[in-house]
Amino acid sequence: DAMVIQNPRYQVTQFGKPVTLSCSQTLNHNVMYWYQQKSSQAPKLLFHYYDKDFNNEADTPDNFQSRRPNTSFCFLDIRSPGLGDAAMYLCATSRDAGGSSTDTQYFGPGTRLTVL
Amino acid sequence: QKEVEQNSGPLSVPEGAIASLNCTYSDRGSQSFFWYRQYSGKSPELIMSIYSNGDKEDGRFTAQLNKASQYVSLLIRDSQPSDSATYLCAVYSNSNSGYALNFGKGTSLLVTP
Fold first, then answer.
1. pLDDT value for A25
2. What is the pLDDT of residues A6-40, one digit of tens each?
3. Which of B72, B66, B50 is nearest to A100 (CA)?
4. Which residue of B has its CA nearest to A89?
5. CB-CB: which of A40, A41, A97 is closest to B99?
6. Are strands B11-14 and A31-37 parallel, antiparallel or unpaired?
């Protein structure tokens, strides 16, 4: 089955220790997104890639970076995690990014990040 | 600020009843609307999408859209305890980085046996 995969499912890191979260997809979608979701809050878009074109949201902290080495994989790097970065990190994909009916976003299972 | 508003609930309905979930949005130019279900500790799962005014039915789920009133709803017929989850309304709006999917905070639904 075509799907969005995230690894690891649970990640524990120490305050200030860099961490990388991974996302892969078999849907062959052009767009890959990273969201942060804290408890009882809506998912918050951090950034997205349209193919190799990186699009950062204006309020995403510099502490968060992303890489997309090929169509299938996308990584979220948190350079110096703080206690406030503990959250569920969601990867999503869509075929296109025009806000139309072909742009349904499909989510991976998420990575729960704990910062000690 | 383009907003998507939902009543946080919890909305409690007995098993077999109809659950009605509502959502309003602020961007009049929005064209695509989605409902996601999210179980506690899990990721959002697409339930339905709707793009045209009126009703769209898929099994026990019906999405309703009224663009003039900027209102979208989800009806769940014959509610089951397994439907207990948070339901997220999501709306595509134009943002500084292109089109972005804006989520409401979700409505918590509890279906009691």
1. 97
2. 999 999 999 999 999 999 999 999 999 999 999 98
3. B50
4. B43
5. A97
6. unpaired
Predicted local distance difference test score (pLDDT) of residue B9 = 87
Q: What mean pLDDT is reported for chain A?
A: 94
| Confidence check: pLDDT of A52 > 80 | yes
DSSP sequence for A52-100: TEEEE-TT--TTEEEE--SSSEEEEEESS--GGG-EEEEEEEES--SSS
Distance, CA of B98 to CA of B110 (rounded, Å): 36
A contacts of B43 (beta carbons < 8 Å): 88, 90, 107-110
Which residues between 31 and 60 in chain B have a beta carbon less than 8 angstroms from any beta carbon of chain A? 31-32, 34, 36, 41-46, 49, 51
Which pLDDT tens digit goes with each residue over B39-66?
999 999 999 999 989 999 999 999 999 9
Chosen for mutation from A51, A105, A112, A114 (greatest number of chain B CBs closer than 10 Å) is A105
CB of A99 less than 8 A from some CB of B: yes
